Amino acid sequence: GNSVTQMEGPVTLSEEAFLTINCTYTATGYPSLFWYVQYPGEGLQLLLKATKADDKGSNKGFEATYRKETTSFHLEKGSVQVSDSAVYFCALRGNSGGSNYKLTFGKGTLLTVNP
Amino acid sequence: EAQVTQNPRYLITVTGKKLTVTCSQNMNHEYMSWYRQDPGLGLRQIYYSMNVEVTDKGDVPEGYKVSRKEKRNFPLILESPSPNQTSLYFCASSITQGATGELFFGEGSRLTVL
After folding, report:
1. Chain B residues with CB-CB distance to A under 8 A?
2. Fewer Cβ within 10 Å of end Cβ, chain B: N or C?
3. Chain A contacts of B94, Cβ < 8 Å?
4. End-to-end Cα spacing for chain B
C-alpha cells in the first residue's frame, strides 16, 4: 500500500534560518502530493500541493518539488518566521479508486521557530 | 464561508456510553472521511464515503460506525466507546473523487473516554 516517511523532528530553528523537512513516499500509479500544516489547537490546512512529476508547489514562501525519480517531496523555506511554528504533515493521495483516494499521512514534524 | 463543521469540539465520556460526533460540510463535496490523530502515529483513516449511501472502511474502523444519508453530513458513531478510542478526530471532505483534490478539514473533536 501507499506510505509516507517524513523527518520526525522536533525541529527547532532561529528566525530567518533555512528550513528543510524531508519527505519520501511509496505509492503505485501517479499520486498527488501535499503538505498540510497544523497550527496549535487548529485543524489541518493545505499548505501546498503538486499533482504530477516535476511540479513545484509553493505558498507563503514554502516550496516543494515532486521528484518521481527519488520519490520525494521535501518542504523548504528560505527564511522562517516565528509564526511558522506548527506541525507539518506530508501526504499523498492515490488515484486508482476507492480506498486509494484517501490521504496517507506521514507522522508529522513539529517545527518551533525562536525569535 | 466554505467549511467543515464538527461537533462537539471537546467531549469527556465514560466507557460504554454511546456517542455521535457530527460532521457537516457546505461545499457540496461527494467525498468525506474521518481520521483520528494520535501522538507518534500521525493521522489514520477510520471510514470514508465516496457519495450518499456509499461508505467503506479505512485503516482503523474497529469500534466505529458511520452513515451517509445526506450529502452534507457524515456522522461518526461510537456504539460502546473504550479508553483506546481517546483521540483527536478530524472530519474531511473533498470536491473530487480523484487524486488531485485537496481535502478540507474540520477543526477537530477531542474525545476522552474514561
Report:
1. 4, 31, 33, 35, 40-45, 48, 50, 56, 58, 90, 92, 94, 97-103, 105-108
2. N
3. 101
4. 36
